[in-house]
Write a structure and sequence with these properties.
The chain has about 375 residues and is mainly beta. The chain has a single domain, classed as Single-stranded right-handed beta-helix, Pectin lyase-like (Pectate Lyase C-like, 3 Solenoid), CATH 2.160.20.10. About 10% of the residues lie in helices and about 30% in strands. The protein has a 15-stranded mixed beta sheet that branches. Strands 4-7-10-13-15-17-19-22-25-26 form a 10-stranded mixed beta sheet, covered by helices on one side. The protein starts with a strand and ends in a 25-residue tail after the last helix. This is Polysaccharide lyase family 1 protein. Keywords: Glycoprotein, Metal-binding, Signal. One of its GO terms (molecular function) is metal ion binding.
Length: about 375
C-alpha cells in the first residue's frame, strides 16, 4: 500500500535522490519548463508494486494532484491502458532501486495538465498499444512541464506530442526508435526548449517545431529529416546552437538536417556540425545554413547563449556518456541506442516494430 509522510521528513529520508529546490523545478533545470514546481511541496507517495492499477501502483499515485512520487520497486510497469497524469506532480524515477523503472505498452498522457516534473523515467510505447493515434508521451495543451533524463522509445504516433503545449523542456533524454509514423516530437504553441538530447533513427520531426524554440547541444543520428518547421508552421523564432547532425544508414539526404525552413522563420544558427560521410569517425563540418529562413544576428532568447556551453563535438561526447534514464550502466535498450550512435554512420535502422531490434522481452529489453 502507499506510504505517505510529511514532506520535510520524507525529503530528509530520501536526500540521496533529491536535489536542492530553488526557484525552478530542480537544481540544474533549464529552459522554459524549468518554471515547473510539480508536486515538490505536496504529499510524498511511494509506488510499492509494478501493477497496472490498484493500491501502491503508479496509476494510483498519479491520480491525485500535489504529489511527489518515489519508487520502492524497479522494473517495467506494463500498462493495459494509457496512464493519465494529474497536474502538480513530480515523478522521481531516480529513487527506484537498480536498474530503475519505466512503463511499456501504452501512452503516458499529461494532456491538458500543468506543472509536471518527470525525471529518470522510461516511456516505451511500442506496438503492444493497439491505438495508432497515441504517442509515447503526450502533453498536448499542457503547460509548465519538464522531462529530464528520460528514455523515450517506440512511439507510435509521435514519440513526444506537445501540440498546444506552453513552457516545456525536454533535456538530457534519449528519444529513439519511433515506429508507426516514425516521428520524434511535435510541438506547437510553445515556447519550448530541447537541450542535450539524443535523437536516434527517426524518419522526421526531430523536432517538428511550430513554436518559438531553443534547440541546443543535441545530437541527431540516422535521420531522414531532422529539425523541421513545415510550410504550414507559421512564423516563429529558433535558436539552433552547437548541435551535431550525424548521417546514418537510413539517411538518404544529409542536407535535410534542417527541413522545410521557409522564409516565415527567424533563425539564429551557430556552432552546428554535420557529419555526412558515414565513415565511423566523428569528422563533420560546420553547417549553419537554414534554407530560406531569416538569419538573425543574435539569439532571440537571451538565455540561449549561456546554455550553449558545449561545442557540438563536446556535446556528442557528453550525451553518449550520460543521456537517458537511470544510473549507469544503462539498461538494454539505451545501451543499444547509444551503441548505434557510436557507430557513426555504419549502424542504424528506422524500425517498424520494437521486436525488430532483436532485443529481449519482444524488443522492450529486460529491466
Amino acid at each position: 500500500m502507499f506510504q505517505t509522510v510529511s514532506f520535510l521528513t520524507a525529503l530528509m529520508a530520501v536526500a540521496p535522490f533529491t536535489a536542492v529546490l530553488a526557484q525552478n523545478a530542480f537544481s540544474g533545470a533549464v529552459g522554459f519548463g524549468a518554471v515547473a514546481t510539480g508536486g515538490n511541496a505536496g504529499t510524498i507517495v511511494y509506488v510499492t508494486n509494478l501493477n497496472d492499477n490498484g493500491t501502491g501502483s503508479l496509476r494510483d499515485a498519479v491520480s491525485t494532484s500535489n504529489r511527489n512520487i518515489y519508487f520502492n520497486v524497479s522494473g517495467y510497469i506494463e500498462l493495459v491502458s494509457a496512464l493519465s497524469l494529474s497536474s502538480d506532480i513530480t515523478i522521481n524515477g531516480q529513487s527506484a532501486p537498480d536498474p530503475g523503472v519505466g512503463i511499456m505498452g501504452r501512452e503516458v498522457s499529461a494532456s491538458g495538465k500543468s506543472n509536471i516534473i518527470i525525471r529518470n523515467f522510461r516511456m516505451r510505447q511500442g506496438n503492444l498499444d493497439p491505438d495508432s493515434k497515441k504517442s509515447a508521451f503526450n502533453m498536448g495543451k499542457g503547460s509548465n512541464i519538464i522531462l529530464d533524463h528520460c528514455s523515450f522509445g517506440y512511439g507510435v504516433y509521435d514519440t513526444i506530442d506537445a501540440v498546444g503545449a506552453v513552457n516545456i523542456t525536454v533535456s538530457n533524454s534519449i528519444i529513439a526508435f519511433p515506429i508507426g509514423q516514425q516521428f520524434g516530437a511535435h510541438v506547437e504553441t510553445g515556447p519550448a526548449t530541447f537541450y542535450r538530447n539524443l535523437w536516434v533513427s527517426a524518419h522526421n520531426r526531430q523536432p517538428l517545431s511550430k513554436s518559438n524554440t531553443q534547440f541546443i547541444n543535441n545530437v541527431i543520428y540516422n535521420y531522414q529529416a531532422a529539425y523541421t518547421v513545415a510550410n504550414t508552421g507559421g512564423s516563429f523564432s529558433h535558436d539552433i546552437l552547437n548541435n551535431y547532425f550525424i548521417a546514418g544508414p537510413s539517411t538518404t539526404k544529409a542536407s535535410n538536417e534542417y527541413y522545410q525552413m521557409d522564409a516565415g522563420q527567424s533563425v539564429y544558427a551557430s556552432g552546428n556540425y554535420l557529419d555526412s560521410n558515414k565513415d565511423s569517425t566523428l569528422n563533420g563540418v560546420e553547417e549553419n545554413s537554414v534554407g530560406s529562413s531569416v538569419a538573425l544576428s543574435a539569439v532571440w532568447e537571451s538565455t540561449s547563449t549561456g546554455l550553449a556551453n558545449l561545442t557540438a563535438a563536446d556535446a556528442y561526447a557528453a550525451l553518449v556518456a550520460t543521456d537517458g534514464a537511470g544510473a549507469l550502466p544503462r539498461d538494454e535498450v539505451d545501451t543499444f541506442v547509444v551503441t548505434t550512435v557510436q557507430s557513426l554512420g555504419t549502424s542504424g535502422k528506422i524500425y517498424t516494430s520494437q521486436s525488430s531490434t532483436g532485443l529481449t522481452n519482444d524488443g522492450y529489453g529486460t529491466l
